[in-house]
Amino acid sequence: MIIIAQGLAEVLQRGKVRHLEQGFMTDAERGWSGADVRRIEVTYENGQKESVIFKEAALKERMTLKTLTDQGHRNTPAAFSLDLEIDEPRWMAIEDLGSVKSPLLHVIWRLCTMRRKA
Asked: Do the beta carbons of residue 94 and residue 52 sit within 8 Å?
């Protein structure tokens, strides 16, 4: 996983990854796809720390997030995967935006899920 974390660090221009440590993630943050998802605390050589999401994702998701990352979309997290060819689940690193809350988006999401249940 450290190689994948380093790939994302290079995309985000964070420097060299020194250490990875298991972070905390609630069940609600894991999503509903059934994929293995983990929050990992990354420490860089300069002492900076941040969390990164690791997900075992299908090829379509890995390719989509790479495209969005390469295009520089500001509303999607940056992502990195070593494997963009094999059509099997593979680990990828995703920028953790979990601490950034948008009340408006939360309200929209709740309304959408309420409509689906109706």
From this structure: yes
For 86, the token pair is 């094999």
Q: Which of 83, 77, 30 is nearest to 55 (CA)?
A: 30
CA distance 43 to 51: 9
Residue 57 in contact with residue 92, Cβ under 8 Å?
yes
The closest of 80, 82, 86, 54 to 67, measured between CA atoms, is 80
Assign 30 a pLDDT band (cuts: 50, 70, 90): confident
Tokens at 11, concatenated: 């995309």
Tell me, rounded to whole angstroms, the distance of Cα 27 from its chain centroid: 16
Separation between Cα atoms, residue 77 and residue 79, nearest integer Å: 6
